[in-house]
Description:
Helix 3 (43-59) packs antiparallel against helix 5. The chain is globular. With 125 residues, it is mainly alpha-helical. It has helices at 2-25, 28-35, 43-59, 62-66, 72-93, 97-120.
Amino acid sequence: MNIALWIVAGVFSLAYVVGGIIKLAWPYERYAAATHWAEDFSGPQVKFMGVLEILGGIGLTLPALVGIAPVLVPLAASALALYMAGAATERIRRNEYTLFLGDLLFLAAMVFLAWGRLAVEPFVS
């Protein structure tokens, strides 16, 4: 189980960090044209989402890797699960049900990771 949790944490950490970097690096107009959902938000709000994704993605792995406050891993996973619940809500509001399934995958992975690191295979200090 520990290996599965590390794999989920690593894969989704990379996905969140890359997604956050794209939100920060691309001009708002380019990002909004490519994704369409971003048109419902202002440029600074999208940039803030990028910061949250980067911090959350880092929080999925770095605390455990360096051994400093590994309790932050399930906290980051819980926070990202809430973030993805908001993203899924936006998908439903926009009738983007195909993309909604991707958000559910991310949400389920974060719930799995939080549960796994809190109850099944917690980091022992």
